[in-house]
Amino acid sequence: MNYRKPKAQKVFQGTFRPNREVENEPEPTPAGNTRKPPRYFNKYSKAFWNDVQSELIETGVLTVVDWRAFELCCEAYGQFREAHDAIYNPIDHETGKRSKRTLEEYLKGKNSQTMPQYTALNKGREAFFKYANVLGLNPVARGRIDIRKSEAEEDDPMIAILNEASRG
Fold first, then answer.
1. In the 3-class helix/strand/coil scheme, how is 18-80 assigned residue by residue?
2. How far apart are CA 74 and CA 80, in angstroms?
3. Residue whose C-alpha is closest to residue 77's, from 124, 141, 135
4. 78-110, pLDDT tens digit by residue?
């Protein structure tokens, strides 16, 4: 998928070229406070939402306009986990309890037309990785983000001395 990268992303990745950019690109407002996950989320989506949102807010990655993308990322993760459970821990309809099985047991006697859970698993995984990359939720994507220090931190000589001493 080809899309136009925002200026901030180009700066983070080191590919920003002023001669090719619009002068006054809008900069969204920081996300502010944490929010409750949407009601329709499954347990996996809710857990991911609660585990990750505060870190994205604190680092400035999540802005007010990013909540929907974050919601889709969490939903994709939840769908992936539900499909994973359907394959590896299916519900036994006689007892109502979950049983364990291997991928080999699941795939036995099936083809691409008879594996809806496997297809859903892969689509959920792909969607999650796309959103995770956009939000910097893996080491490679995070390595492309350069969180700027506040002006107070940059100008304070005491902070510079303490930072230098901690690197020791």
1. HHHCCCCCCCCCECCCCCCCCCCCCHHHHHHHHHHHHHHHHCCCCEHHHHHHHHHHHHHHHHH
2. 10
3. 124
4. 999 998 998 898 888 888 898 898 888 888 888
CA-wise closest residue to 38 among 83, 89, 11, 73: 73
Taking the domains of the chain in order of start, what are their residue ranges?
Answer: 7-167
Q: Does the pLDDT of residue 1 top 60, yes or no?
A: no
Residue with the larger pLDDT of the pair 56 and 144: 56
Query: Which residues 6+ apart lie within 8 Å of 36 measured at CB?
Result: none
Yes or no: say if 135 and 70 are a contact pair by the CB < 8 Å rule: yes
| Amino acid of residue 76 | A
Q: Which of 84, 74, 86 is nearest to 46 (CA)?
A: 74
